[in-house]
Amino acid sequence: MELSDRKKKILRAIVDLYIRTAEPVASKTIAQMPDMDFSSATIRNEMAELTTLGYLEQPHTSAGRIPSPAGYRLYVDELMQDYRLSTDETKSINQAMELKMQEVDKVVSQVGKLVSQMTNLPAYAMAARSARLTVKRFDLILADSGSFILVVMLSDSSVKNKLIRLPVELTEADLKLLGAVLNASVTELTAEQLSPELLSRVTRSAGNAASLVPVVMEFVTSLLHQERGEVYMTGQAKLLGQPEYHDIDKAQKMLSALDEDVVSNLPAALSPDSRTQILVGPENVSKELRDTSVVMTKFDIGDGMQGLIGVVGPTRMDYAQITARLSYFAENLSRMFQKNQTPAIEGLENKHNDPEA
Amino acid sequence: MELSDRKKKILRAIVDLYIRTAEPVASKTIAQMPDMDFSSATIRNEMAELTTLGYLEQPHTSAGRIPSPAGYRLYVDELMQDYRLSTDETKSINQAMELKMQEVDKVVSQVGKLVSQMTNLPAYAMAARSARLTVKRFDLILADSGSFILVVMLSDSSVKNKLIRLPVELTEADLKLLGAVLNASVTELTAEQLSPELLSRVTRSAGNAASLVPVVMEFVTSLLHQERGEVYMTGQAKLLGQPEYHDIDKAQKMLSALDEDVVSNLPAALSPDSRTQILVGPENVSKELRDTSVVMTKFDIGDGMQGLIGVVGPTRMDYAQITARLSYFAENLSRMFQKNQTPAIEGLENKHNDPEA
DNA sequence: TCTTAGCACTCTTTATCACCGAGTGCTAAA
DNA sequence: TTTAGCACTCGGTGATAAAGAGTGCTAAGA
Fold first, then answer.
1. What pTM was computed for the model?
2. From residues 262-321 of A, which are strand C contacts by CB within 7 A?
3. A234-244 as b/e, with b when 16 or more CB fall inside 10 Å?
4. Does the CB of A39 sit below 7 A from strand D?
5. From the CA of A258, how many Å to the nearest CA of chain B?
6. According to the model, what pLDDT value does residue B347 have?
7. Is strand D in 7 Å reach of the CB of B343?
8. How far apart are CA B86 and CA B325, in angstroms?
9. Contacts with B306 (C-beta within 8 Å, 6 or more apart), sequence order
10. At CB < 8 A and 24+ separation, what contacts does A215-222 make?
11. Residue A269 has pLDDT above 50, yes or no
């Protein structure tokens, strides 16, 4: 059932106000607002109905109303007004980005910090690899005594390497053969296309270097499969400033959940189609976080890679503003990475020499 | 002035108890302890003296005593009894390590999480490179159209690489020459030994590839200089469980300080000689953290690299236990890395393709 | 001279109670 | 359908009292 325009107007006013004040909103307060041409009694009646419809809640009899999760949902979907960034804001965002992005090594963690600063909320950032990732090219360099360096260039132009010890004595020619075979058979394949059948075919063609094939292929598989890197989370303390977390117990539950659940479950919640997504309260990944919401958005890093930034805050957060800032930030990032052309993020996954290698 | 044995005994008892209960300790409570053969009145007198000497504090007239920072200092330096890990504890630590360390990519962040779990306190972890780091070997691989991959093997056996675009057309032979020059002149040198004079010498010998030398050298310099990687911090929520942070304001100040100061200032506070270090309250890096202490310890990763793990907690933390666990953990880690021989941590610094490269 | 029992004093904590004010729901009138 | 009016509910505040914990000091005892 569709709400009347007046109900919507009132609901929007209530959510707007509650977001600003964090206090239950009274009918009188609404009635006094400039373009509300009804008495408080009328508003009261409407509020009573909105309550039975499930869009508002009442902490106790003699308090005002606060939005319910359903109320927020309706608000973010239909009611809220677009927030336009002021030029001051865009300027300060741009400045901060230029300043911080110099430390290019740590783009992802820096991005997180910036977002947190900008929104005054805890933020997380991560980079995710797409399933389309393939190997573009292999190189094998004979290093000193008994080991070689495997250099793998990926389709996103990042380069990974691994030092591998030789189980048997091999000549440079053996390695060259292996390299040729790999470049012929294993390039341009996505993770899914790596079959056991392929493995045995490569092994057969690899001559003396056959014993190396499993190690190499395992490395490749791990590179292509690894879909996300480290998740960075900062600014948790910012939450404690919000009135909903003045109750220490809640604050703690909340922060623990942030540490554990959010970080591991969020990426899964990201729908493939929309860029920006808002998870309100109970729609959230963890039940602990009933009064916590998440706003997240994607940005492009380069071929085959995407980044994810998001903030976590009380359900009563300024969705319009936060969403606007986050999107602006993401657009800027995408542009930066596009301009740099060579994909700037690399080493998001740390390469590694396994003990058994 | 040296304290009498009895004063020390009483002080120790008070600190021990306060660490357990977080409540001011009363004379009567001490007097009732098994091997205290004095009346509460006697204890009271001693406590009064310990207070004037600055080892104890009194929240208000009719409360018991709590240790002052000086009291804690004395306690950790002289009074506290070694905590011996039970076999249960060592077993569970070992298990956790085996389990978690499989995700070898993320050793450092995993280490942090583990330490936090083990101590039930916020923990941080980072890896630091020593100044002794040198380049062991260069390789240059001509990649596709107009770019090549620079592969650098460092003295800690980690391998770094960078994709560099060619400003001019170069042949494989040109690159080979450059590689030979680099391997002859720039290997085995620490960051300090890289001089401008060296740069020009290399440039002169590099033939057609001379224009590449600055880019290459800049990369090398950045690798050798970069003394520490990302600092990982987890488990902040654990602090909120501690009674000293039931005051939200304090909690927030504390957590903000953790985000900013600790992470950036801690490494500086690490003395080169001792392995484990305890910073009590005001000795701390940030003034905000008067009632917060830090315990940190180092572990060896491999030639030229060290790791740092630490926990942050209320001044009233169980130093003996925490120190014991941390040390055990660090020893285990050192052993792990030693066994693996090829240094397992790599990619702590993310390699990167600069836009201008 | 050192120890200890006893007691007055201080200060915090907790409970109780009354009161105020904010806000609602309902009724009746416009 | 809207609105004015009013009774009712309930949380918040502040004052007061009572209880409890612990100390410091004094004076007696070893």
1. 0.77
2. none
3. bbbbbbbebeb
4. yes
5. 9
6. 36
7. no
8. 10
9. B127, B128, B130, B298, B299, B300
10. A215/A164, A215/A357, A216/A150, A216/A164, A216/A178, A216/A182, A217/A186, A219/A150, A219/A152, A219/A162, A220/A135, A220/A152, A220/A186, A220/A194, A221/A191, A221/A194
11. yes
Alpha-carbon span A225 to A220, nearest angstrom:
8
Interchain contact, A159 vs B149, CB within 8 Å: yes
Q: How far apart are CA A253 and CA A108, in angstroms?
A: 26
Whether B126 and B333 have beta carbons less than 8 Å apart is answered as: no
Bases in strand D with any atom closer than 7 Å to a protein CB: 2-5, 8-11, 20-26
Residue A41 burial (CB count, 10 A): 11
Which amino acid is residue A283, in one-letter code? E
The reply to whether the CB atom of residue A38 sits less than 7 A from any atom in nucleic acid chain D is yes
Other CB atoms within 10 Å distance of the CB of residue B342 = 20
Tens of pLDDT, residues B224-247: 876 666 788 889 999 988 888 888
CB contact at 8 A, A30 and A43:
yes
Contacts of A354 in chain B (CB under 8 A): 104
User: What is the separation of C-alpha B164 from the centre of its chain, rounded to a whole number of angstroms?
Assistant: 34
Residues 6+ positions from A278 with CB-CB distance below 8 Å: A76, A293, A294, A295, A319, A323
The dihedral sign for the CA sequence B337, B340, B343, B347: negative
Instruction: Tell me the β-bridge partners of A66.
Output: A57
Distance of CA A57 to the CA centre of its chain: 31
Cα A1 to Cα A4, A50, A53, A75: the distances in Å are 9, 12, 10, 16
A16: Cα separation from own chain's centroid: 26
Q: Which residue has the tokens 């359900």?
A: A315
Q: Apex CA B96: angle with CA B94 and CA B100, to 5°? A: 120
Confidence of residue A105 (pLDDT cuts 50, 70, 90): low
Are A194 and A172 spatial neighbours (Cβ–Cβ below 8 Å)?
no
A22: left (phi over 0), alpha (psi -120 to 50) or beta: left
User: Strand B123-129 to strand B159-165: parallel, antiparallel, or no bridges (unpaired)?
Assistant: unpaired
- Cβ-contact A295, A273 below 8 angstroms: no
Residue A245: CB atoms within 10 Å: 23
Report the distance separating Cα A222 and Cα B103, nearest Å.
11
Q: In whole angstroms, give the CA distance from residue A11 to residue B212.
A: 64
CA atoms within 13 A on the CB side of B200: 2
List CB contacts (< 8 A) between A347 and chain B: 347, 349-352
Calculate the angstrom distance between C1' of D25 and CA of A48: 67
- Tally A–B CB contacts below 8 A: 146
Residue B24 tokens, joined: 């001011």
| Phi–psi pair at A72, nearest 5 degrees | -60, -45
Q: Calculate how close chain B gets to A8, using CA atoms only, in Å.
A: 37
Mean pLDDT value across chain A: 83
pLDDT at B342 over 50: no
* Distance (Å, whole) CA A66 – CA A18: 7
Pairing mode, strands B232-234 and A305-314 = unpaired
- The answer to whether the C-beta of A129 is closer than 7 A to strand C is no
Work out if B45's Cβ lies within 7 angstroms of strand C: yes
pLDDT at residue B270 in the model: 66
User: For residue B14, which of B29, B32, B34 has the smallest C-alpha distance?
Assistant: B29
Q: Which of B141, B226, B344 sits opposite A139 (nearest CB)?
A: B141
What is the rounded end-to-end Cα distance, in angstroms, of chain A?
A: 64
By C-alpha distance, which of B38, B356, B41, B327 is closest to B214?
A: B356
- Covered bases, chain C (protein CB within 7 Å): 3-6, 9-12, 21-27
Cβ <8 Å between B109 and A230: yes
Nearest-Cα distance to chain B for A32, in Å, is 35
